[in-house]
């Protein structure tokens, strides 16, 4: 999409950990703060701390991602063992960085959300669809988003984003 007002690129691989709080896991916020230096975000929000992003997918369900060398899933599995189930999802997701001045116009063609900055703010997360695909959409900045899709559907999402940008 070199001539398009929007840039779409596959983000470098990263460590990704799914975190599912056990019932009565009241100590999870304190343990995660001690391990990552981040407070747990509210549902549909994302926080960044120390090179790790933590997203709340639903009450008690989180997704943490960081640099590939961080070995994040194993580290979290050890530190949160009594409080949450931690799964290594590093090879499950393909993440696209989508940015540019016309990014909201392009995404509006494939994502059924109101992306107005007053509604979908920086740090917001949505579990939604892009075309026919289930995706996770994060708003990173004024003109930047990330979209995660199951790795086997990455070519489909890339194609949909390219079509939306033309």
Q: How much helicity do the residues have?
A: 10-25%
Distance between the termini: 8 Å
Multimerization state: single chain
Percentage beta strand: 35-45%
* Contiguous runs where pLDDT drops below 50 for at least 5 residues: none
The CATH superfamily of the largest domain appears as Probable tRNA modification gtpase trme, domain 1
CATH first level of the largest domain: which class?
Answer: Alpha Beta
Number of helices: 4
SS-derived structural category: alpha+beta
Describe what you observe in this structure.
The protein has 4 helices and 10 strands, in the order E-E-H-E-E-E-H-E-E-H-E-E-E-H. It has 166 residues and is of the alpha+beta class. It folds into 2 domains: 7-11 and 92-164, Gyrase A, domain 2 (2-Layer Sandwich); 14-88, Alpha-Beta Plaits (2-Layer Sandwich). Strands 1-7-10-9-8 form a 5-stranded antiparallel beta sheet. Strands 3-4-5-2-6 form a 5-stranded antiparallel beta sheet, covered by helices on one side.
State the gist of this model:
Helices cover 20% and strands 37% of the residues. It is an alpha+beta fold and 166 residues long. It is globular.
Which features characterize this protein?
single chain; 166 residues; alpha+beta; Gyrase A, domain 2; Alpha-Beta Plaits; 2 domains; 5-stranded antiparallel sheet; 4 helices; 20% helix; globular
């Amino acid at each position: 999409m070199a001539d398009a007002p929007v840039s779409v690129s596959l983000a470098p691989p990263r460590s990704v950990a799914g975190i599912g709080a056990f019932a009565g896991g009241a100590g999870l916020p304190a343990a995660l703060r001690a391990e990552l230096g981040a407070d747990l975000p509210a549902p549909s929000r994302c926080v960044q701390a120390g090179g790790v992003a933590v997203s709340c997918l639903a009450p008690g369900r989180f997704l943490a991602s960081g640099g590939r060398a961080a070995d994040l899933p194993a580290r979290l599995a050890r530190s949160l063992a009594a409080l949450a189930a931690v799964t290594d999802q590093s090879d499950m997701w393909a993440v696209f960085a989508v940015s540019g001045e016309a990014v909201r116009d392009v995404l509006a063609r494939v994502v059924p959300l109101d992306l107005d900055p007053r509604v979908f703010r920086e740090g917001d997360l949505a579990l939604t669809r892009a075309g026919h695909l289930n995706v996770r959409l994060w708003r990173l900045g004024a003109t930047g988003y990330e979209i995660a899709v199951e790795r086997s559907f990455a070519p489909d999402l890339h194609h949909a984003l390219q079509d939306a940008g033309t």
